[in-house]
Amino acid sequence: MNKYFLLPMLAVLLAACGTTSVAAPAPRAAAAKPGAVTVEVAYLNHPPLRPVLAEVDKLLANYGDHVSVTRYDFDTPEGEAFAKAKGLTGHTPLAIFINSSMQFTLNGRTVKFYSFPQGQGTGMVPDGGWTMQDLQQVLDEATSKSS
């Protein structure tokens, strides 16, 4: 095989494996109603986290205008400023704040919406101590109080 053919192919493969961020879609287009629950999602827009973001977006879409969602990509100036303001340091793949809090008590246990949900971590970044069901329970409770 021609070595001049392999070099461009290798360059394309390396470029495809890079950590270039791709804009994540907004959870929904509907405007939030007055008094809606605020949800702030800060994330690394990298391949291992994208399926989790899709799950979070799908869950948030169920709440329609009862939630006001703001997203922060850590790899942007806005995301860096948000992380600094919230005291997030180090390699943080995901942090979810509901009404300015990331930590909640559910059924007598503390749940912090930080890092990957249980069972979805990577070899380099461990799971957090939360599940999508935990997130749904907190959102259910928060939106029922704001209705």
Question: Which features characterize this protein?
Answer:
single chain, 147 residues, alpha+beta, Glutaredoxin
Describe the structure.
It is a single chain. It is built from four helices and five strands; from the N terminus they run αβαβαβββα. It is of the alpha+beta class and 147 residues long. It has one domain: Glutaredoxin (3-Layer(aba) Sandwich). It has a three-stranded mixed β-sheet. The termini are far apart. 24% of the residues are buried. The N terminus is likely disordered.
List the helices and strands and how they pair.
Layout: H1 3-16, E1 37-43, H2 50-61, E2 67-73, H3 77-86, E3 94-98, E4 103-106, E5 109-112, H4 132-146
Parallel strand pairs: 1-2
Antiparallel strand pairs: 1-3, 4-5
Q: How many structural domains can be distinguished in the coordinates?
A: 1
Main sheet? 3 strands, mixed
CATH architecture: 3-Layer(aba) Sandwich
The fraction of residues in strands falls at 15-25%
**Number of alpha- plus pi-helical segments:** 4
First-residue to last-residue Cα separation: 66 Å
Task: Say what the CATH topology is.
Answer: Glutaredoxin
Low-confidence stretches: 2-29
Give, in spatial order, the strands making up the sheet with the most strands.
2-1-3
Tell me the helix content.
25-40%
Assembly of the depicted chains: single chain
Task: Report the radius of gyration as a whole number of Å.
Answer: 18 Å
- Would you list the SSEs in sequence order as H and E? HEHEHEEEH
